Amino acid sequence: MSLLYEHLSQFGFGQSNPTYQITDSTRKRYVLRKKPPGKLLSKTAHQVDREYRVIHALEKTDVAVPRAYCLCEDEGIVGTAFYIMEFLDGRMFEDPSFPGVNAEDRQEMWHDAIRTLGKLHRIRPQDVNLETFGKPSGFYNRQLRTFTRLAESQAAAKDKDTGASVGQIPHFASFLNLFAQNQPRERGAVLVHGDYKIDNLVFHPTQPRVIGILDWEMSTVGHPLADLTNLLEPWTVSNATPSWPRIHASPAFLHSSQSRSQAKDFLGLPSREQAVEWYEEVAGWRVPAGELRWATGFALFRDSVIFQGIAARYAVRQASSEKAMAYGREMGPFAEMAWAMVGSSEGEKAKL
Predict the structure, then answer these.
(1) What percent of the chain has pLDDT over 70?
(2) In this structure, which CATH number among 3.40.50.970, 3.30.2290.10, 3.90.1200.10, 3.30.190.30 belongs to the domain 91-350?
(3) Which residues fall within 8 angstroms of residue 344, CB to CB, at 6 or more apart?
(4) Which residues of the chain are in CATH 3.30.200.20 domains?
(5) Superfamily for 7-86?
(6) DSSP letters of 46-90?
(7) N or C: which end of the chain has fewer CB within 10 A?
(8) Which residue has the higher pLDDT, 336 or 25?
(9) Which residues pair with 85 in a beta bridge?
(10) What phi, psi does 21 have (nearest 5°)?
(11) How many CA atoms lie within 13 A of 255 on its CB side?
């Protein structure tokens, strides 16, 4: 691919891999994603070659992805490996309640987001040359090992000023015992996005449909419930105990029986139960309630480890913003939400 560009600008929203818009001499736009510069903390993160591989593999399927044009692993060009893909001219929403959208479109946009996820999970990796993209079983055990290592390391981080440790996640040892048991049944080799949510989707400029899934850096072969529970998180967090409000909570997703609910102001939003039914229709399998509850608890536990990581980076001043501090404080609340969801019922089964 030969490209003569006239303008280069960096996107600022939600990008762990630096992402740029390129405009060529004919005013056509492209997107360039590259590895961050410098020494990376994780060998498994920021693998733009994997992003390129999965997007390119899905181009000939019915899953909405941008076209991937080329991958360059020569670090002498722009400093790190990068790939170039199609620029999708559409709408992106940080708020999953779709403010400013009419009720009919709001419902169909959620329906198509779920439909798109179901289509992705129907793809057999071997049919798109992704049979070596990840292991077909043991996804949650691998996740548990990864998050255990992270949490133990992050807990030891000490505040640069006070010397106080970040500390361990509440119920940490019990979580490890619980999540090692009673896991959802394996669903075979399934492509998972790894961070499937509304703000990683591009919608058509005027129509209520998805035209592309972005940010594939965490994609792998894994368990479909990981993606589904991530997408359902607005309902989970908004209605979870023991406290409210919190990060990611929205009164639009709060049950209408609650006094703070604003559900009537966001007509068209499906219920969590309706969203699961839509997924089942496309994915082609019934989601057992117990498995969904387990996977939802695991997703909240995963979030608590992520927030602990933000707290650790804030402690050593690798992250210094007030937003980072606020997110770091959510480690405890998210762990308590997870425990309230799975600690009592599942804990008895696991004999904690």
Answers:
(1) 88
(2) 3.90.1200.10
(3) none
(4) 7-86
(5) Phosphorylase Kinase; domain 1 (3.30.200.20)
(6) --HHHHHHHHHHHTTSSS--PPEEEEE--TTTTSS-EEEEEPP-S
(7) N
(8) 336
(9) 31, 68
(10) -100, 130
(11) 9
CB 10 within 8 A of CB 19: yes
Token pair listed for 138: 């043991």
Q: How far apart are CA 171 and CA 28, in angstroms?
A: 52
Per DSSP, 320 falls in state -
| Residues 148, 312 contacting (CB under 8 angstroms) | no
How many C-beta atoms lie closer than 10 Å to residue 138's C-beta? 14
Q: How far apart are CA 263 and CA 256, in angstroms?
A: 6
Q: Is the pLDDT of residue 14 over 50?
A: no
Tokens representing residue 214 in the block = 């972005």
CATH 3.90.1200.10 residue ranges in the chain? 91-350
pLDDT digits (tens, 9 = 90+) for 62-93: 999 999 999 999 988 888 999 999 999 999 99
Report which of 302, 303, 292 is spatially closest to residue 224, judged by C-alpha positions.
Answer: 292
Strand-pair category, 190-192 with 220-222: antiparallel
Name the phi and psi angles at 2, rounded to 5. -110, 130
Tokens at residue 132, please? 């070596």
Q: What torsion do the CA atoms of 76, 81, 87, 93 make, to the nearest 10 degrees?
A: -130
Pseudo-torsion of CA 285, 288, 293, 299, nearest 10°?
A: -20
Residue with tokens 């991958």: 71
Say how many residues make up the chain: 352
> Is there a contact between 305 and 151 (Cβ–Cβ < 8 Å)?
yes
Count helices and strands (H / E) in the chain: 11, 9
